[in-house]
Design goal:
about 575 residues; alpha/beta; 6-stranded parallel sheet; binds thiamine diphosphate; binds magnesium ion
């Protein structure tokens, strides 16, 4: 029996597990809109900007295994691009349907024409242009299969006339296959790995997102090796718990002294499921082992000595019986001491700041950590709020934390919260947003309002692009074009039908957050934070930094740019040592 391509697409999406899609309808997307409506099994979420839809779909994929977003001809699907980069780099299976002008018009510089394969090539694992109905029918299953198995974005370019046409014959399977094969290193490799680990005394584990499904095994490995455990930002929420006796913190741009120092001093560093990007923070002298189920990642950022392709859970399960238990916990204790000292400093710092009138963002983050539920899902914007989250939001019973950790885009936290709120209605969802970030996709607060998604949006309103301010100060550039005039975000939210609060003094932070978290519906909390609070070590005051940055600025004006930047760099190194 003949089947319309738009209907076939809906069938394929339903069979793949897609429960909702995010889109702004129009022109070539209308046949699919109609098919989704008639079918009734997929919920259409009408976002206000397609980029927000791509982020939300990415969160569906991250939490539920698959996500879907769509964009209409030209500008409609171009808007998806930034969110798709994020999804693709995060390894989230997202199906993006980019509809376009009719097939007979393609290639002639027509109105709203884009070259879909060229456009999405760099932000997808698979991108196909369905030029004929039969080709479309053949491509859907494959596109979905690629997204699932390659863990990333699949894009299907679909002209409006192709969606409306029908096919008689469908050659592909009508379902998808979520295979969960066990990948572990071969026998000889496992023996080599065990020998290396057994021969070293001071071992450190460094855990990334790839350890998500292997938390138990990683804990057992630390225990057996008396190994301090560091983590990347994407890995932190699984291990950064007060109940974890091996945790020594993050390393990297947002990292801590204990994370950095442990890695430098370990004889053997074992990188587990991490594509940790900050090569400057990785050691060069010691032995490094890397295990990852994506073997192309091995050795590309660190001087790795032994690399193995394997899923962390099954690999460690097979490895553990081959390892000798270590008894000397001196290294672990030394590093834990530094870590505990540092955690105390962080706590003392926010306690001291709680007396101030100005609201310090670290204080806000520590209160969020205190009052949020033990299984809350946090999304964080790129900017200073990511730094505060890295330091103060702790893993508890079953918390989850995510952000634009690979792509590093602004404005991600609020739309990610939309996806999280819809796919996990049973969990508390908290977005930590920058004022710059929220301003970018502000219109999609209306999506939250329209679908009554009960997420909690917290704005760290420092009236500035704080992260960039810091970058400029450290690099010795005069701080310029980083300040912002903001609307009254609480009034904006209220005008959109979202209950909102503004907080201008420290004393009001806790009670307001508690009230907003208890509110049965979407909530926005606009917190006026101190614009001078930059992500600096607790002991270093802003004025000190401003002082050296000013002199660096002067140096630059005298034409000594390279010197200025070098001085800034060495000052940064010195500052790192202080905390
Ligand atoms: C889309 C995008 N544009 C620009 C940047 C560069 N950038 C990184 S952080 C940042 C400032 C963020 O400001 P805000 O959201 O107010 O957060 P804050 O750092 O002040 O907490 C900018 C401009 C980026 N990462 N992504
Ligand atoms: Mg800001």
């Amino acid at each position: 029996m003949a089947k319309k391509i738009a209907d076939l697409l809906v069938e394929n999406l339903v069979n793949a597990g897609v429960k909702r899609l995010y889109a702004v309808t129009g022109d070539s997307l209308n046949p699919i809109n109609d098919a989704v409506r008639r079918d009734g099994r997929i919920k259409w979420i009408h976002v206000r900007h397609e980029e927000a839809g791509a982020y939300a779909a990415s969160m569906d994929a991250e939490l539920d295994g698959i996500g879907c977003c769509m964009g209409s001809s030209g500008p409609g699907h171009v808007h998806l691009v930034n969110g798709l980069y994020d999804a693709n780099q995060a390894g989230n299976p997202v199906i993006a349907i980019a509809t376009t002008i009719n097939s007979d018009k393609l290639g002639l510089d027509n109105f709203q024409e884009t070259n879909i394969v060229k456009l999405f090539d760099d932000c997808s694992k698979y991108c196909v242009m369905a030029n004929t109905p039969q080709q479309a029918a053949n491509a859907f299953q494959s596109a979905i299969q690629h997204a699932i198995q390659d863990r990333g974005v699949s894009v299907v370019g679909l002209p409006g006339d192709v969606s409306e046409a029908s096919v008689e014959h469908i050659a592909t399977a009508d379902r998808n296959f979520y295979t969960n094969s066990i990948l572990i290193p071969g026998k000889n490799e496992m023996e080599q790995l065990a020998t290396v680990i057994n021969s070293k005394d001071k071992v450190m584990l460094f855990c990334g997102y790839g350890c998500k499904e292997a938390q138990e095994e990683v804990m057992q490995l630390s225990e057996k090796l008396k190994a301090p455990m560091g983590f990347s930002f994407r890995g932190k929420i699984f291990f950064d718990k007060s109940s974890n006796p091996f945790a020594i913190g993050l390393n990297g741009l947002l990292g801590s002294k204990s994370g950095f120092k442990t890695m430098q001093e370990a004889e053997l560093v074992i990188l587990l499921g991490t594509d940790f990007p900050y090569t400057d923070f990785l050691p060069e002298e010691n032995t490094i082992v890397q295990i990852d189920d994506k073997p192309e990642r091995i050795g590309r950022r660190a001087k790795v000595d032994y690399g193995y392709a394997g899923k962390i859970g099954p690999t460690l399960e097979a490895l553990l019986p081959m390892l000798e238990s270590k008894t000397d916990d001196g290294f672990l204790n030394d590093m834990r001491k530094i870590h505990e000292e540092q955690e105390k400093n962080y706590t003392a710092y926010v306690r001291a700041k709680s007396e101030d009138k100005n609201i310090h963002p670290e204080f806000v983050a520590s209160i969020i950590d205190e009052v949020a539920e033990d299984d809350a899902i946090f999304t964080v914007d790129t900017g200073m709020s990511a730094v505060w989250a890295a330091r103060y939001i702790k893993g508890k019973r079953n918390r989850y934390l995510t952000g634009s950790f690979n792509h590093g885009s602004m404005a991600n936290a609020m739309p990610m919260a939309i996806g999280a709120g819809l796919s996990r209605p049973d969990r508390q969802i908290i977005a930590l947003c920058g004022d710059g970030g929220i301003s970018m996709l502000l219109g999609d607060l209306m999506t939250i309002s329209q679908y009554e998604i009960p997420v909690k949006i917290i704005i760290f309103n420092n009236r500035a692009l704080g992260m960039v301010k810091l970058e400029m100060l450290v690099a010795g550039y005069p701080d310029w074009q980083t300040d912002m005039k903001n609307p009254d975000f609480a009034k904006v939210a209220e005008a959109m039908g979202i209950k909102a609060w503004s907080v201008k003094e420290c004393q009001g932070v806790k009670a307001t957050l508690q009230e907003a978290f208890q509110h049965d519906g979407p909530a926005l909390i606009n917190i006026f934070t101190d614009p001078d609070a930059l992500a600096m070590p607790p002991k270093v005051e802003f004025d000190q930094i401003k002082g050296f940055a000013k002199s660096l600025g002067k140096l630059m004006l005298n034409g000594q740019t390279a010197d200025a930047i070098d001085t800034a760099r060495s000052n940064m190194k010195y500052l790192r040592e202080l905390f």
